Amino acid sequence: MKEVQSLPADWDSRLRSALRDNCPVTARMEPHLRAVLMDTTGHPGRLIRARLALVAGEVHGLGPAAAEQLACAVEYYHAASLLLDDLPCMDDAALRRGRPCAHRVHGEATAILAALALINRANALIGCAFAAQPAVVRLQVLAGVDGCLGPAGLVGGQAQDLRFAESARTAREIGAVAQGKTGALLWLSVCLPALASAPTAAEWRQLKALCVYWGLAYQVADDLADVTESTGESGKTSNRDGPLRRPNLALAVGVEAAQHRLGRLLRQAARALGRLEAHQERWRYLAEFQRTVFAAVAGKVGRRLPGLAA
Amino acid sequence: MKEVQSLPADWDSRLRSALRDNCPVTARMEPHLRAVLMDTTGHPGRLIRARLALVAGEVHGLGPAAAEQLACAVEYYHAASLLLDDLPCMDDAALRRGRPCAHRVHGEATAILAALALINRANALIGCAFAAQPAVVRLQVLAGVDGCLGPAGLVGGQAQDLRFAESARTAREIGAVAQGKTGALLWLSVCLPALASAPTAAEWRQLKALCVYWGLAYQVADDLADVTESTGESGKTSNRDGPLRRPNLALAVGVEAAQHRLGRLLRQAARALGRLEAHQERWRYLAEFQRTVFAAVAGKVGRRLPGLAA
């Protein structure tokens, strides 16, 4: 088990160049499809999930190259989900990361095909990243990805999100959607690499709980941003959830209650992290991630939250 | 190497029940998404690729369960591509397999999410089908699937198809689109299972050539059907290629010349099959497949074609 307790100093340049190198472009491809793929992989977001996957892959012994493959895969799944979420038949967004959405520039069909190309490449990268692991780990990885991205995860969360107006619209249902949409990709960054170092049943329970708390916290922060930030601040079309009747905790219970909920989730995450470290020091990178990365996320919602103190 | 020279007698019921059993539905999923998934996997087409993958998987020693997983994966990729091709931003079709298209009944977003769920499950099934193979085979499988479904294969073919009006629109370009759209999925049925029994370089060349001939032949037959059959006969919206300015060889060179081309492709395929059998008898199932299955496909275009005699 390698001792990697913090992000490698060169994480940003390593990830950016890996995202370009692994981008599924070919010499003679259709130019609009190429443009969306180059643009999407060349202008990533904050790379929160990819950073986490990179350090986790190294901590759990996948090796630097495989950790980069895993990080790229997680980022490609995420980028694909954004290309699709922004479509007219989903959120009908105009802006993403401060730029016009791909479908507005290159058409809906090209945006869909680019998402498929990214998902396809991500699957190959995950297969390669775990190719040297024993069969039992590889089968756990296959089942994990299947669960995370399918109807029990990302696809299911998005389907519930779109039909939210037809549901009971309680805070509980908002949480279920958030778990599918946000928790699933965090699971890939946190739990998938951990499989390579055979976590105990107790550690596995805490890891899964951590993904639930982080996923919900992340979504509450996003809900708050949709309500309280302008499109210019967030770089994506804001104030969408209300008109589209999409689940948004800040709209459902109010901004202050949502901020309280965010603080509570991060304290619950901190307790899960404490229990993990009580098992083994190798989990310390996760606590560091909460302090350094999640603090910035929560900081955006304009309030110093308990549970985030360094 | 098992001697399986013809389709198992129970292939139809085996495939239909495997398609239902592997369908990515969960207990508490969003009802529209569930409906599209159940409907798509419960009403498959002629299962040409799945039949081929099933017998190939058994011939090349994957075992019956893994051969079924592979066959389901190929069919799920195919079904996903149809769900997406039919969308308003692509072919804007109304009918598929004699029934209203999924997006017309359940909305575009649900059709897209169902396609993603099928692709996700197909990836897991292929991983499981080859999980017991040596690392070298598994890496070849990963690279093969990546190439087949990405910009060099299915996604790339579809992107060129949609922008065909902007291209030079020659018979050569029609062939390139057909290769991406149709040849790629045949490659998954023919070449992927063959990897498990270590084909020689000479055999591999013939297998790849066979996929090119079959892919082009299949697309020419489809082009002829679009031009010469009514929507009622084909079960999908016909006479679409002309108005949409999509590649169609029968429109480009005329029905008779396209029929000649189809005959020539099938004779080329027969020669590749002859060379394969000259290497080893284990390839005989492919020649039988051309005689029994491709004969029916070509028979649809209303002409007894040379190279198809039993």
Helix amount of chain A:
55-70%
Major β-sheet strand ordering of chain A: 1-2
Largest interface: A-B, 48 and 48 residues
* Straight-line distance between termini of chain A: 26 Å
CATH superfamily of chain A: Farnesyl Diphosphate Synthase
- How much of the polypeptide of chain A forms β-strand, as a percent range? under 5%
Give the overall form of chain A. globular
The quaternary organization reads as homodimer
Count of spatially separate domains of chain A: 1
CATH fold name of chain A: Farnesyl Diphosphate Synthase
Average predicted confidence as pLDDT of chain A: 90
What's the short story on this structure?
Chain A is mostly helical and 310 residues long. Helices cover 69% and strands 1% of the residues of chain A.
Describe the protein's topology.
The structure is a homodimer of 310-residue chains.
Chain A: H1 11-21, H2 31-42, H3 48-59, H4 64-85, E1 95-96, E2 99-100, H5 102-106, H6 108-129, H7 135-149, H8 154-162, H9 171-194, H10 201-228, H11 231-234, H12 241-244, H13 249-253, H14 255-279, H15 284-299
Antiparallel strand pairs in A: 1-2
